[in-house]
Amino acid sequence: MLLQYHYNGVCSRKSIKLYCDFYSSDLIVASPVRLIAKISEAKTFKEKDVDYLSSIEVLIIDHADVIAMQNWSHENTVVEQLNHIPSKQHGTDVMRIRPWYLDGYAKFYRQSIILGYYSNPDINALFNRHCSNYQGKVKLVCEYKGVLPKVILQVRQIYEQFDVDSIADVDDARFDYFVKKVFPKIKDSVQGGIMLFISSYFEFVRIRNFLKSQEASFCLLGEYTQPSDISRSRLWFFEGRRKIMLYTERAHFYYRYKIRGIQNLIIYSLPERKEFYPEIVNMLDGSHNMSCTVLFSRFDQFRLERIVGTAPSKRMVTSEKGVFIFC
Fold first, then answer.
1. Which of 130, 156, 172 marks a domain boundary?
2. What is the pLDDT of residue 36?
3. In Gene Ontology terms, what is a biological process of this protein (predicted)?
4. Same domain, 176 and 87
5. I want to staple 117 with a disulfide (CB 3.0 to 4.6 A). Which of 16, 65, 154, 315 is the partner?
């Protein structure tokens, strides 16, 4: 079933027929956004339902890393809707239904395949919570060499590790470290051209609000920033009329902006996509007295290993040292 722009399906008897009715389809090809829309309709209108999700036997999540750049909560919501007992019969011959479906055990027989360029805590959580096949699970683990050789500039990349006890406290600990250790240096410096690269939009909003409270000179470049505001922000930052620029990973994912005028790069949170790291650091090309500071914790190992390599990342997160330098 093709559900990116249409509401129909794919039948595959002796030939393929595109755009069948949901309940006559053997295959559903859908984006999470469209499925969320159908689930919302079913909750709003009594005559609507998503019972066609109850009989899914094979789930394939392709390009999970790209979906993670959108809204991963949609993926969780969709998977939670799979293999429920249908609300209506839909002309089904009850005598042909397998007993474990009627007993509510269908999810334990579903095969789930997640494909992606990398893994992250959100993808891992879905894998651990919702992939429940009774025969077990298999995960392919990659050994990364890192992307530091792709940084073509002779710039010192200073990795500063902050302490945190649990993954639930990572965001607060990162913010506290920035406020107490990093921002005072920015505030006291007369040099402009400071770019803060931020992976999460929620972190972006938090830093934006903090800079407002400090009456700092800054501009914004996020995924929701209007095109006219983007052009103005890039110009003001390049001309030195704004001291700080906030730049999000999703904005870079969608638009790949080349930011000019960066003198001091602060990577507040490491990018999910490893290729973004050299792209961002290489934007320092042409600057004077360039510097690059990266904040990380032991809970950032997924991202860290893709950038510095699997073996170095393990040493970094277990070391008692707080600062690591790459040139």
1. 130
2. 92
3. maturation of SSU-rRNA from tricistronic rRNA transcript (SSU-rRNA, 5.8S rRNA, LSU-rRNA)
4. no
5. 65
122 and 204 housed in the same domain: no
Residue range of the domain that includes 115: 31-130
pLDDT at residue 159, rounded to an integer: 95
Element (H, E) at 309: none
Are residues 264 and 175 part of one domain?
yes
Size (the chain), residues: 327
Are 277 and 159 in contact, with CB atoms under 8 Å apart?
Answer: no
In the chain, count H helices and then E strands: 13, 11
The SS3 call for residue 171 is helix
pLDDT digits (tens, 9 = 90+) for 141-152: 889 999 999 999
What is the number of alpha carbons within 13 Å of residue 29 lying toward its C-beta?
10
Own/partner contacts of 16-24, CB < 8 Å, gap of 24 or more, are 22/52, 23/51, 23/52, 23/90, 23/91
- Concatenate the DSSP letters of all residues of 93-105 into one string: -GGGS-HHHHTT-
Q: Summarize pLDDT for 232-254 with one digit per residue, the tens.
A: 999 999 988 999 999 999 999 99
Domains contained in the chain, number: 2
